[in-house]
Amino acid sequence: MDDFEDILVNGITFKKASGPKPADDKVKTKAKKKKYITGAHGSGSARQKAKYREQRANRKSQRKK
Fold first, then answer.
1. Of 1, 33, 45, 52, which one has the fewest beta carbons inside 10 Å?
2. Does an H or E element contain 31, and which?
3. Buried b (16+ CB within 10 A) or exposed e, 28-42
4. Is residue 33 within 8 Å of 46, Cβ to Cβ?
5. What is the rounded CA–CA span in Å between residue 36 and residue 53?
6. pTM of the full structure
7. 3-class SS of residue 11
């Protein structure tokens, strides 16, 4: 009850939002990491996805010719 009385007497103070976060050069998701994209880390699923990405990239490069 003491907190409630303190709020009634003094009110609620809101603080200013902190500034923008510093820019990180770190990769935050697995999907963007080089080993995951190429399927090199050993996961069968990742290897299969890498194969599909490679096929899609090859299709796009063939269209430009």
1. 1
2. none
3. eeeeeeeebbebeee
4. no
5. 12
6. 0.38
7. coil
